[in-house]
Amino acid sequence: MACHALIISDKGLIMAKDKPQGSRVLHVFTNILPSSPTPPPLPPEVPSRQWMYWQMFRAVTKKVIRAPFSLHTWAALRRAMISNFLPDTLGYRYKAYQQGECNRCGLCCKIQFQCPFFIDEGEYNTRCSIYTTPHAPSACLKFPVDPTDLKLLQREIGNACTFYFEGAPQKLSIIDFARLYAQGVRQHFAKRKLKEAPENGD
Ligand code: SF4
Ligand code: SF4
């Protein structure tokens, strides 16, 4: 078993092989401490994590600054709230009614300003450099969350988006909403517990 000696001395906590006189030793077994998981590699278009977070911060700031005179900022905020704070039982209610496919026109990534993660490889051949990474914004992954979300986006890009909705789920009373919310939260924690369980545990 891997072991390091932590010495408590007048100089504070030090790590050493030999025990200085008059100090106490704490043995720390490093291989039973949970090691932090290795972060997934970054896509080639993203030079570093710092650069990525800085670009995200800049993009959000630019959006917020435009809030007083752009409805799009509020539409983006609405989608961010729905996709980040509602459990799947509510956030995905409209997915069964969503039709069409993304034609990769890229117009939704160029409203107000061009997103720093947007890659243009020709007409109808655009892509997002972080879409398949854990850093992709939930609001981008879950678009369109409902017909209002789609309508607000279509307004900005001249109805060029090829998604549409056919039909709609039944309207929810406040009690139904609360029930689905509670159910979604329970499912979320059950899934998380399952993920955290050791693979060979019993
Ligand atoms: S506007 Fe619609 S069709 Fe065009 S890239 Fe965005 S999601 Fe796809
Ligand atoms: S899908 Fe990617 S490129 Fe488009 S706005 Fe979202 S993060 Fe930016």
Put simply, the count of helices is 6
Structural class call reads alpha+beta
- Please list the strands of the largest sheet in the order they lie side by side: 2-1-3
Mean pLDDT: 86
Shape: globular
Stretches where pLDDT falls below 50 for ≥5 residues? 1-9, 11-16
**Strand-residue proportion:** 5-15%
Ions and ligands = iron/sulfur cluster
What percent of the residues sit in helical stretches (DSSP H or I)? Answer: 25-40%
Oligomer: single chain
The number of distinct β-strands equals: 7
Could you give the distance between the termini?
A: 24 Å
Radius of gyration: 25 Å
Give the helices and strands as they follow along the chain: EEEHHHEEEHHEH
Biggest beta sheet summary: 3 strands, antiparallel
Description of the structure:
- The structure is a single chain.
- With about 200 residues, this protein is of the alpha+beta class.
- Among the domains are: about 1-35, no CATH class; about 50-85 and about 100-165, no CATH class.
- About 35% of the residues lie in helices and about 10% in strands.
- It is built from 6 helices and 7 strands.
- The protein has helices spanning about 50-65, 70-85, 90, 140, 145-155, 175-195, and strands spanning about 5-10, 10-15, 25-30, 100, 120, 125-130, 165.
- The strands form 3 sheets. A 3-stranded antiparallel beta sheet has the order 2-1-3, with no helix packed on it.
- A hairpin with a 5-residue loop joins strand 5 (about 120) and strand 6 (about 125-130).
- The structure holds iron/sulfur cluster (2 copies).
